[in-house]
Amino acid sequence: MRASQDIYPQSVDVERDVEQLRNSWRHPRGVLGWLSFTTHQAIGTRYIVTAFIMLLAGGIEALMIRTQLMRANNGYLGPERYNQIFTTHGTTMMFLFAVPVMEGMAIYLVPLMCGTRNVAFPRLNAFGYWMYLFGVLFLYWGVFTNTAPDVGWFAYPPLSGPQYTPGKSTDFWAQMITFTEVSALCVAAEIIATISKMRAPGMSLNRMPLYIWSILIQSWMIIFAMPAIVLASSYLLSDRTVGTHFVNPAEGGDPLLYQHIFWFFGHPEVYIIFIPALGFVSAIVVAHARREIVGYTAMVLAQIANGFIAFGLWVHHMFATDLPQIGEAYFTASSMMIAVTSGVQIFCWIATLWSGRPRMTTALHFVYGFIAIFVLGGLTGVMLAAVPLDLQAHDTYFVVAHFHYVLIGGALFPLFGAFYHWHPKFTGRLMNETLGRANFWVLFAGFNLTFFPMHILGLKGMPRRIYTYPPGMGWDGLNLLATVGAWIIAAGGILFIVNFLWSRKNGEVAGNNPWDADSLEWAASSPPANYNFEYLPAVTSRYPLWAPREQRGVVTGLATDRREALVTTLMDAEPHHRYILPGSSIWPLISAICVTIGFAGSVFNGWYITWGAIISGLAFIGWFWPKRPLEPAHD
Fold first, then answer.
1. Cα–Cα separations (whole angstroms), residue 522 to 344, 453, 518, 562
2. Of 198, 204, 205, 201, residue with least CA distance to 580
3. Once rounded to an integer, what is the mean pLDDT over residues 377-397?
4. What's the gap between Cα 262 and its chain centre?
5. 199 phi and psi, to 5 degrees?
6. How many CB atoms lie within 10 A of CB 419?
7. Do residues 502 and 432 touch, judged by C-beta distance below 8 A?
8. Residue 627 has pLDDT above 80, yes or no
9. SS3 sequence, 566-614?
């Protein structure tokens, strides 16, 4: 194989190669075929669609919460139902929407931006999606059968233990965690392998787009953080189902051990959501400011530092517990330190926009909104890093306002911007810019109307996690204002859905690169073919599509009549060897069903773990049974 300096080399038969690629990458037909897809575009789309359905469900639950709190002594929801809605809302947003949607976007975009044909392990990719979907169904089966969890999305013992929360609702929550984290670990493994070993020739580490850096950092964080929450939820589940004594204080367990393990996952989780959003912002700023990013090296180092420091912050969620003062001082310092690395990136984006020629597209509107909201959320984060203030505000709505400013402003606004930016690549059509700008301003106004008053409510002493409050506390007007803002956010969500549905069929045809952007995904067709590229690209620049035409190249010599990909070296992305990617298969779904039988059944009887392991082992044998590779028609 070789890297050619001609975009369409004369030494190959382009029409024949394209026809063979279509045949070898064709999706199988029928329902069974649909269940067997392993191409990254199909799996990424499924993640994104399922996650947005979860966003809709979590948004409806948020509206129910705000409607209950809009006035004193409201009887809309009773205490038990409120706790169920409150728990399901937080669980949905944190475990079933925020991380999976970032993973779905990565699964779709990373192979395109790396200049390869698929993720490294396509069948593992499909298995991860089915595990995620079964986790969604497992939780909401409990919701619709009146056994929804009611212990908060954090499920602190002893209130989540068998003594105070009998029944199976908390067991559903604890086991759902295992489903979603297995899925996340699958995605992290395949993304790390794809970025490390399947980048286009010439895409050395110092030429990788900042979005790819953000996803690589996120994936390594998942590898180290997710086992902690699986351990914490398994401790809780085993205490409840088989009588162990890990975190149940009535039997000598330690509930603070649970909190330490949970937040060792929980604070990196915020950055697992947030760091890919930083990658979205970088991609949007470069493309729409029409210039190279200012401070590329500083941006990469700041993102890596974010990933490291995020693992040293977890105890600031526990300042209200009995901690040694030296520990409080350490976690205060690290909580303030992470603002520096985030600030570096914000200054680099502002400098890029200042010195570029920005087009005021909808995507860039969401970037500006993100900067404004996230800076305010970061400032309140620095305030809460101080132990004396945190002790006063910890259980108040001030904290609710802070983490919504960080999570919605820091992740959801960039996500909407990313969707407007990459929608032409997903569908081949532009979203309506007039509706898009209206969508932004409605969301921006509704968000600030909802969550800014919560700062004041917290300073006025309103506790969080309460289902009602007495009159005369001075909270009624601000709560009504926040509820009105929540309904305005809902209106913004409806505008987005209308824009998306209308633009899918009626939007302006985009072409391959409507933004004149710089990265490789815009070199593929819109929407991309199952094989992504007719010939894999070769890279000579950090901004390959802005390089002069004579400096662009493609890879020739790979087989086109089978699913063959190019493996490159880690540092400099030099061609190393060929790799035959597995095709469509029903075995990932069968394996996920078998694992689900073991996980779900163990909530009711521990023996299901044994039987589930046996049938899962049989399914994995079918999955990994060696098959004779197809020989290429030419070399």
1. 28, 42, 8, 24
2. 198
3. 93
4. 19
5. -75, 155
6. 23
7. yes
8. no
9. EEECCCCCCEEEEEECCCCCCHHHHHHHHHHHHHHHHCCCCHHHHHHHH
> E strand or H helix at 300, and its extent?
helix 296-309
CA distance 88 to 403: 17
Burial of 556 (0-12, 13-18, 19+ CB in 10 A): middle
DSSP 507: S
Residue with tokens 């559903």: 172
Quickly count: other Cβ atoms within 10 Å of residue 354's Cβ: 10
- Cα separation, 40 vs 426, whole angstroms: 12
Query: Residue 561: phi, psi to the nearest 5?
Result: -95, 15
Produce one character per residue of 97-106: b if its CB has 16 or more CB atoms within 10 Å, e if not. bbbbbbbbbb
b or e along 228-255 (b: 16 or more beta carbons within 10 Å of the residue's beta carbon)?
bbbbbbbbbbbbbbeebebbbeeeebeb
Q: Which of 35-39, 246-250, 379-383, 442-446 has the lowest mean pLDDT?
A: 246-250
Dihedral (CA of 371, 181, 251, 90) sign:
positive
- Is residue 112 within 8 A of residue 520, CB to CB? The reply is yes
As a whole-number percent, the residues of the chain with pLDDT over 70 amount to 97
In the structure encoding, which two tokens stand for residue 259, read together? 């909190």
Helix (H) or strand (E) holding 554: strand 553-556
What is the C-alpha to C-alpha distance for residues 348 and 421, in angstroms, rounded to an integer? 20
Q: What are residue 89's phi and psi, to 5 degrees?
A: -60, -50
| pTM reported for the whole predicted model | 0.94
Write the pLDDT tens digit of every residue in 433-454: 999 999 999 999 999 999 999 9
Residue 338 host element (H or E): helix 325-355
Strand order in the sheet with 553-556: 2-4, 553-556, 537-538
Cα gap 427→430, rounded to integer Å: 8
φ, ψ (nearest 5 deg) of residue 64 = -65, -40
**Which of 258, 275, 269 is CA-nearest to residue 224?**
269
Of the candidates 267, 274, 218, which has an alpha carbon nearest to the alpha carbon of residue 410? 274
CA distance 134 to 137: 5
| Residues across the chain | 635
Contact 303, 345 (CB under 8 A): yes
Phi, psi of 558 (to 5 degrees): -75, 145
Report which residue type is found at 213. W
Kindly give the residue spans of alpha helices, DSSP state H, lying in 69-168.
Answer: 79-91, 99-114, 122-144
Per-residue CA distances from 333 to 340, 386, 389 (Å): 11, 9, 14
Query: In a 3-state reduction of DSSP, which class is residue 158?
Result: coil
Q: For residues 220 and 91, what is the distance between their CA atoms, to the nearest angstrom?
A: 23
Asked if 236 and 255 touch (Cβ cutoff 8 Å), the reply is no
Residue 614 in tokens: 């046996």
Residue 197: both structure tokens together: 């070993």
